[in-house]
Amino acid sequence: MDCIKFLYIDPGTGGMLFTILFGLFGVVVFAFRTVLMKLKFRASGGKASKINDQKIPIAIYTDHKRYWNVFEPLLDEFEKRHQKVVYLTGSGDDPVFGKNYEFISGQFIGEGNKGFSKLNLLNASVVVSSTPSLDVFQWKRSKNVDYYIHIPHAPNDITLYRMFGIDHYDAIILSGEYQEKEIRQLEELRGYPPKDIVLCGIPFMDEMKKRLEASDDLPSHERTVLLAPSWGESSILSKYGEPFIDALISTGYKIIVRPHPQSFSAEKDLMDKLMVKYNDTSKVIWNRDTDNFEVLRQSDILISDFSGVMFDFSLVFDKPVIYTRAYFDVSPYDASWIEDELWMYKILPSIGLELNENNMGDIKQLIDKCIDDPSFSNGRDKARSETWVHMGEGAKRSVDFIMEKYNEVISRNTKEEIQDTTPSKRKMKKVSLKGL
């Protein structure tokens, strides 16, 4: 029995060991492929062009289909320009497979480590992604990728990623000057060279705005409250849970709860408990739609914490929010490195009211005041001016930048190929080999 106890490994440790072993396996595979590519290079007489013929021009990677709204405007723009792009996704049922693109090809590369193992060996000129932590955990920079571009999936502080989440990208597409300031501060503090940064706007919000303008007016309906928190220990459902849902039900309003998708895996026990207890749809409606457009359009007010959906709701749909600020621990995030207050916390009082333990019991009055107070409209205008530059031009400007970087990569690689194949270079290589 003691022997069995000695051999027991708890699930957390086991998962960590599996990740380490998988990472080591990936290193071995990558090393083997590197040697193989070098042998091919020498067999071809040192002509890198034969290897580069297999290179993907532009690859876009998403770890989950829920970020389709971030990339669809870019893919549509690439399609208009007849530019070939490979869309790599971690979801087998990603919406890309239902599109009739001619120049865009979708590839399911698997979830988690399976997907990362392929990304780590990717051969592409430019990779665009909204997934953080490149070269931090399992996802490593491939030696066969020339340039990595990050595009955020929320129009707020770029420092709200887990620590070091964007450090190893070559460029970042942003929507507000305050975001650039945050990145430059992090680079200076960590001693990193400056990244390429461009302010292009927010393509997915541009499309959402167009979609809203094309929609019919909503019919008269009962006052509808949408609770759409983030996930983790600092989120509303983790901190306030059942008492807060009870308080919302007591308002008599229509209550819709839309948890963050990550909650159903990272906080499964909590979600199961809440959904079992609040299973009466006349009191609480649980929303898990992949597309959040309709639930946002039909709601009169949004309650959230530090989720970026607050800005989708207030800036696109022009409606007020109620937010929480207490208990948010920034220590795991890049924000912990910067002394300045988060832009999100500076702007939130302009677009809504704060929810805390002291006024949670008065949630009905808070909701009514927030909806009826006209001053929040001016606050939303202020927020748009600071975090949504080049409104309506996000996709075009983003693709312009990606193509600019792609052309720079092609030009640089072509020059290097020419230099490597000149007679003087070949002669130098032979001399150096003899010297060995």
Work out the helix count: 18
Q: What is the general shape?
A: globular
CATH class categorisation of the largest domain: Alpha Beta
Largest sheet: 7 strands, parallel
Mean pLDDT: 87
Helix- and strand-based class?
alpha/beta
What separation lies between the terminal Cα atoms?
60 Å
Radius of gyration computed on alpha carbons: 25 Å
The CATH topology of the largest domain comes to: Rossmann fold
Fourth CATH level, the homologous superfamily of the largest domain:
CDP-glycerol glycerophosphotransferase, C-terminal domain
For the largest beta sheet, what order do the strands appear in spatially? 3-2-1-4-5-6-7
Beta strand count: 13
Helix content: 40-55%
**Beta strand %:** 5-15%
Assembly state (oligomeric)? single chain
Uncertain residue ranges:
1-16, 44-48, 425-436
Please give the CATH architecture of the largest domain.
Answer: 3-Layer(aba) Sandwich
